[in-house]
Structure formats: C-alpha cells, structure tokens
Amino acid sequence: MTAVIATWPGTGQVRQSYASLVEHYTALTVSYSRFPGLQQEVEAFLDLLPDGPVLDLGCGAGRDAHLTAASGRTAILADVTLELLSATAARLASPNAVCGDAVALPFRDTCFAGIIASGVLLHLPKPYTPAALASIHRTLIPGGRALVSMKHSGQDGWRTTEEFPAPRWFTYYQPEEFAEECRAVGLRVTHMDKSTRKDWFTVMAERPSLEAAG
C-alpha cells in the first residue's frame, strides 16, 4: 500500500469520515442484500470484459472485489481511505491493495480490463470529475470498460445521514450529463440505466479499441 496525496482538499475530510466508521460502514455495505439488482449488474458487466485484471475503485468493504475474484478474475482493491482499505484487504486476504486518489490513479497506462467505480466519483466536486474519468480512460486497456454508479436529483454539498453520521461530499448528475463527461475524455458510453435503488444510476463506458479510435 502507498500513501495518498489528495488532489482535492476536501478529500481529507471524506477520508477522515470513512476512517472513523470503518466497522459500521463495512457492516452496511459488505453484502448485496441492501442493494437490489446490483449483484446482477456487476456480474453482467464482468461477463462483457476482455481478459485482464479488474480494479475496484473506491472499494470500500470490498463487495465488488470479492465478486470479481469469485468470477476467476484478478481483483485490485483501491481506496483513498487507508484504514478502510487495510481492513478490507486483510478480511479478503488480498495482496492487491493500493491506497490512491481517483483523480490521479497510481497505476500505469492500459493495465485494467475493467474498472468498477461504485459510488466513489460522487464524492468529488464537478470540477474534478474530468480528471477522474481521464484516469479511468488512461488505465483501461483498449476495449476495456468501466461501470460507474452515481446519484441524480440532489443538491451538491456536504451531507450526513442517519446511517452515516460523518460528513461526506456528494455531487449529483443527470445521467446524460454524466455521460457527456465520459465522452469528453474519450470514453464511449455503451449503456445507461436509472436504478430502482432510490436516486442511483449507472453508466457503462468503454475505452475504444485502437482500431475504433483510429
């Protein structure tokens, strides 16, 4: 694991909030039971990927990484909160864990067949979204795909909830608005879906193959 230097000052507060509630947050999110349909979405995404490792970006409790590994793929854990990442890597007995910021992923170019970013980019203000999506594009192999979950229909800003009483930043996009952000960095949007899970939506985007890009 490597130390992280956050590129948005507010990331320090987000990191501190998750670090203060590691066990609580893990209990809330470690399984798919509270997220109807999400497991099926991730399984369908994994089935579409070319060969290669999959990054669980903002892995949290490691729910998606665990499913990825169970499918026979190499799962890489990444999270900005070292305390949460360490606990998850130990529980999953995973040697593949990197502490890093989504705005500047600490990985070489073209190394992932897939990237799952479930509820992580929404913790960045909109001016930082392009850099995070550019990092995703850069680290995907040609033909690789990303599955990104975001929220719509809310007011951007810091918020707490009864379930998660520590402050986190939330940014909201309409699906087509977020799809345009993906296209602007060179990702090809292949699927968008407003989820039945409250105000969530998902975007699947592909780094075009070299032939298609040319």
Under CATH, the topology is which? Answer: Rossmann fold
How much of the residues is beta strand, in percent?
15-25%
Rg is 16 Å
CATH architecture: 3-Layer(aba) Sandwich
Number of helices: 8
Give an overview of the whole structure.
There is one protein chain. The protein has 214 residues and is an alpha/beta fold. The protein has a single domain, classed as Vaccinia Virus protein VP39 (Rossmann fold), CATH 3.40.50. It has helices at residues 11-20, 22-29, 38-48, 63-70, 82-92, 129-139, 175-184, 210-213; strands at 54-57, 75-79, 97-99, 112-118, 140-151, 157-159, 168-170, 188-194, 200-206. Strand 6 (157-159) and strand 7 (168-170) form a beta hairpin. The longest helix has 11 residues, at 38-48. The radius of gyration is 16 Å and the shape is globular.
Topology record:
Blueprint: H1 11-20, H2 22-29, H3 38-48, E1 54-57, H4 63-70, E2 75-79, H5 82-92, E3 97-99, E4 112-118, H6 129-139, E5 140-151, E6 157-159, E7 168-170, H7 175-184, E8 188-194, E9 200-206, H8 210-213
Parallel strand pairs: 1-2, 1-4, 2-3, 4-5
Antiparallel strand pairs: 5-9, 6-7, 8-9
Quick overview of this protein structure:
This protein has 214 residues and is an alpha/beta fold. It has a single domain, classed as Rossmann fold. The chain is 34% helix and 24% strand.
